[in-house]
Amino acid sequence: MKTLPLSIALASAATLLAAPLASAQSTSAGDLGVGKLLVSARGLGDPNFAETVVLLVQYDQHGALGLMINRRTEATVSRVLKDVDTAKRGSDPIYIGGPVELDTVLALFKSEKKPDEAASVSGDIYLVTAKSPLEKALAASTGGADLRIYLGYCGWDAGQLENEMRLGGWWIFDGNDGAVFDSHPDSLWSRYISRTEQEVVELRPESPLLLPATSH
To answer: What is the pLDDT of residues 78-124, one digit of tens each?
Structure first.
């Protein structure tokens, strides 16, 4: 994977607004795959993944790679990507994709046509990992609704993510561009986790009725 060495400062939280979300799909490791969203369970012990929503962009027998899609920073694209032609998207925010290799630059780009040197993730969402296609995406982008740039990623060795699933660390949702390019990513986790808790309540069986004792 080609990378661009960069540095960044973390951001503060932003406005929390509600938006419609898909229903929870599963807590089974068998439903993991490219394009799935991982929503960290409430109280997850690892601070690196607390209150995160992760899009899986690679998944196979060797392990998994994902991008946190709800960690927006205050740093801008033009401030961070010094050696990249940022075109008209220089004021867009940078996102933290995960705790691994924070000098690695990755991007998610929504396009009707597959960009050169990009990997399909879900529907018309593509993963961009090299400088030239990133510059093309920046030039073609119309804003935050079709392009997000990340520093770092989340990585799991073979079997590691599956084990975290068995321990109840994650909820799995189907990925969609509405979530990936959500205009209020800072509230994305709270909206998803509220939906999972609502479903738990709805699926809980009702208590059996207690009938009065009869005399014989």
So the answer is: 999 988 998 889 999 999 999 999 999 999 999 999 998 999 999 99
DSSP 27-61: S-GGG--TTEEEEEPTT-S-TTTTT-EEEEEEEET
Domain count, the chain: 1
Point out the least confidently predicted range of 16-20, 70-74, 179-183. Answer: 16-20
Angle ∠(54,60,61) on CA atoms, nearest 5: 130
Residue 161: which CATH number? 3.40.1740.10
131 is a domain residue: yes
Q: Give this prediction's pTM.
A: 0.81
Long-range contacts, 108-111 (Cβ 8 Å, 24+): 108/55, 108/57, 108/67, 108/69, 108/147, 108/148, 108/150, 108/180, 108/181, 109/137, 109/141, 109/146, 109/147, 110/145, 110/146, 110/147, 110/177, 110/180, 110/181, 111/137, 111/140, 111/146
Note whether residue 24 is domain-resident. Answer: no
Expressed as residue numbers, the domain containing 60 is 29-202
Dihedral through CA 102, CA 103, CA 104, CA 110, nearest 10? Answer: 80
